[in-house]
Amino acid sequence: MNVVVLVKQVPDTATRIKVSSGGVEIDPRGVNYVMNPYDEFAVEEALRVKELHGGQVTVLTVGGEKADEALRTALAMGADEAVRVSADAKDPLTTARAIASVVRELGPDLVIAGKQAVDDDQGQVGSLVAALLDWPQVTVVTELELSPEGGVAEREVEGGVEVVEFSLPAVLTAQKGLNEPRYASLPGIMKAKRKEIRQVAVDAAVTGEPVLRTTALHVPEERSAGIILRDMDAAALAKELVRLLHEEAKLI
Ligand SMILES: Cc1cc2nc3c(=O)[nH]c(=O)nc-3n(C[C@H](O)[C@H](O)[C@H](O)COP(=O)(O)OP(=O)(O)OC[C@H]3O[C@@H](n4cnc5c(N)ncnc54)[C@H](O)[C@@H]3O)c2cc1C
Q: For the segment 142-166, what is each residue's pLDDT rounded down to a tens digit?
């Protein structure tokens, strides 16, 4: 069973994001980039599928040369092949069109994406790829069982679990809890450094025009410093707290 995993390189969630001077992008200086955490679940699941059913795992990203780092992380975990797609991707749809065109050529049984990328948080790419390929899709998957004909997936719903049957080929999006992603072994990391990353260019006729355009990007406003009440007995503390809530916070 051949699986393609869609991997995006994103800023580490611990990074303090600054907006660049143009006001629509983050300033990449000093940012530590990692593989999107939901894509780690996707890579792990693909490796488990391969261990159970044979076949191979190909990781694919749309991005610049730096995105090779995310591909190498996946190779170090155990993926067999890596493809970096150069394309004029400007929104989820153009990104998905580039991905779908390469997936068509690779012809896998299954595509697994993360349920969302933690930087742009659009949560669109997996579903758009499924729609462009006209394949069944199951989103926010937390459990997966496959047979050569199809699969059964559990997905998270409010307060419960939904069980869904689907045929192959299909696109799934991975939710936290699907598995426990493995750490890359030292030999795996060494091997991944030497592995060739296939480069594929997708031209503008395929990606087409974007349908979304980012017009502004804001970071949250700095929060004002809190007030700490000290050196008072309980009665005075309660009185002062009520005064502050009333006069300063205007809550009561
Ligand atoms: C080189 C490049 C330049 C871009 N420039 C701009 C720009 O100037 N302005 C702008 O608004 N947008 C730009 N984009 C698009 C934007 O950064 C996102 O990739 C796109 O909007 C997808 O939305 P998302 O990141 O929220 O993904 P989501 O839909 O939240 O991601 C869900 C899942 O889809 C997969 N996925 C998402 N993105 C990729 C990817 N690139 N490669 C492989 N798998 C992926 C992953 O599995 C991910 O977990 C650019 C993208 C690329 C690759």
A: 999 999 889 999 998 999 999 999 9
| pLDDT interval class at 220 (50, 70, 90) | confident
Q: Same domain, yes or no, for 160 and 246?
A: no
* Ligand 1 lining (C-beta closer than 6 Å): 6-8, 36, 38-39, 61-64, 89-92, 95, 99, 113-114, 116-117, 119-126, 214
Domain that holds residue 123: 3-207
> Has this prediction a pTM greater than 0.85?
yes
Please report the atom of ligand 1 found closest to the CA of residue 124.
Answer: 29
CATH number for the domain harbouring residue 51 = 3.40.50.620
Cα 95 to middle of ligand 1, angstroms: 6
Residues 184 and 237 in one domain: no
β strands within the chain, DSSP E: 3-6, 9-11, 33-35, 57-62, 81-86, 110-114, 137-146, 150-157, 160-167, 170-174, 198-201
Asked if residue 162 and residue 44 are part of one domain, the reply reads yes
